[in-house]
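Researcher: First entry.
Model:
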Amino acid sequence: MYTLDSRFTDAEEGMYYTYEDDNETKFVEMNHAFAKLIGRPKTELLSLTPDIIYNPESSKKLHQKKQRLQQKGYLYSEEQLIGHNNVKLNVEVHSSKVLGAQKEIYFHVVKEISEKKWIASQVRNKLILASGLLNGQMKITHIYNHYEPLPFTGMEQDICGSSLFSFVDQNDLMKVRRCCAKAIEYRKEKQVTFQTNELYSTGAVKLRAVVKPMVNGSNEVTKIAFVLCRADNAEELSETLPAPLLLACL
């Protein structure tokens, strides 16, 4: 039977319980996903106060937020947490008050939204054709339209599950692979221009792809955000070859 305990422990989203003791917040329990997000062992985190994993800017308003949570019983906020390797993690936190046996307990659900923040910054600065998420095999898991229909042939849902490389002309394929490999290796935002193949309903066009690996507190790549924009007059970016092992992974 799928119990509430197993749903909490094995949930993909980070979850934890806290309580207040002499105006100090303390952990009660947390699930595996939250410990993995922060990048520290669960036993270590349980011995700490939750406030210390917040970015100093977020910490400034914690007292007021705790008061609102205690008064209203529910609170939504966007915060920045600090992972084990000083990785900044943008998250949204949904908190609610529940009644414990002897004290008030607070339940928190943490959703990592770093890719949403990054994509939003790209949309503000560029005329984006599309944006979305890739997995470690560079397959599209989510895609979003912005200012014009996608030029891909077929329905939009057919694109999800396809490799980003499947839309690249063979002459530019190695260049795009190198760009993605370097982004993953260095955990850095990278961009590359390329000519599309003939799978487009409008014919081949020149696009610029910007990719940004998202990491957890252990500096593990959890997903890769990307944007596509028109690049008819874009300069070609010079790229050096990565290690053969990295190319073999793509």
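Researcher: Second entry.
Model:
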Amino acid sequence: MEQTMREGCAGTGPGAITPDGCAVELYARLPVGDEPEVIAAAVPAGARILELGCGVGRMTHALLERGFEVTAVDESAEMLERVRGARTICGPIERLDLGETFDVVLLASFLVHAGDVEVRRGMLRTCVRHLAQGGSVLIQREGADYHSNVPRERVDPAGFTVRIVSVEPVGDGVDSVHAEYVFPDAAWTQTFRSRPLTREQFEEALAQEGLRVDRYLTDDRIWVRAVPMP
């Protein structure tokens, strides 16, 4: 089924492209980083996790291996076809309402930086709506120089290159980001819109939806544990 691209998003390369410009075949190749360790250290063992924007399940599978129960959500059916061992739900994050709650809600992949403020607010409200009493929301933010250290590239030990080629303002505090992923046998590009947020702006965005920072989980403040306001 053909899906409508989100505004300002595009992608090229082999295989299916999702509404936000992600290539399914690309993400199936990307290795998982240290995110599962960060998450596991911040939440109770065996917690029920609602993973918003799971993609092909890179983190999903790692969390399942660590004994967590994961419900994986993505708006791309092609992405969800790659997920194994978890309950999967297809649909936009900002409109999700499952009528149940979880110990942990996970909003990774810089989704909190959605260019559309109403989409961001919808995503955060989804987090709050699905949070059990005493639970927490784990959020992944962009690094401090994500929009200014451009162009830049990283050669992964697995043998591929990631480039942030350009970051161009498009108005209202939003940037258009263009990325390239180059493997020996294939290449993909992705263009998407991102709203940079200072620490203060990020915390204000959380507060607008009834959340506060409990603690920053990494020294670079990219990973955050948030909880409901009293």
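Model: Note on the second entry: The longest strand covers residues 161-171.
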